[in-house]
Specification:
It comes from Micromonospora vulcania. 60% of the residues lie in helices and 0% in strands. It is mostly helical. It is globular and about 45 Å long.
């Protein structure tokens, strides 16, 4: 019985991460409002916020931030949501993260390093304007 519950819980968690990737903002926000941990983290250290940022889902990023998502959390590779949003050139997500206090120098690689490495001058400028 415990194995079934564990499998069911794991499947639910995978579904929550899929909602973040897909930008299913209202559905994911409803789960968070009902008690889903806003900083839920997968086996690679990716939070819901990091996945939403990486998949260029600015509405989902904003909703998670509004519900207290920690923008400074890094995944197992040292990347945070701001670096993910920069990598995907999601200006809206970058703006939301900066407005929430995300630090362009945080993480390894940081958002600033990501913009430089991938030659993303628009993102670098957005980070500087912050």
């Amino acid at each position: 019985m415990t194995e079934e519950l564990d499998a069911e819980t794991l499947a639910f968690a995978h579904r929550m991460f899929d909602l973040a990737r897909a930008g299913s903002t209202q559905e994911l926000a409803a789960y968070v409002d009902d008690g889903l941990p806003v900083n839920l983290t997968n086996d690679k250290g990716d939070t819901l916020l990091i996945l939403a940022a990486y998949h260029a889902r600015p509405d989902t990023v904003a909703a998670l931030l509004a519900r207290g998502a920690d923008h400074s959390r890094t995944n197992d590779r040292g990347q945070d949501a701001l670096a993910a949003a920069v990598f995907r050139s999601s200006a809206e997500a970058v703006r939301a993260l900066l407005a929430a206090g995300a630090d362009p120098a945080h993480g390894d690689p940081s958002a600033a390093q990501t913009a430089q490495f991938f030659d993303l001058p628009e993102m670098a400028e957005l980070l500087r304007a912050g």
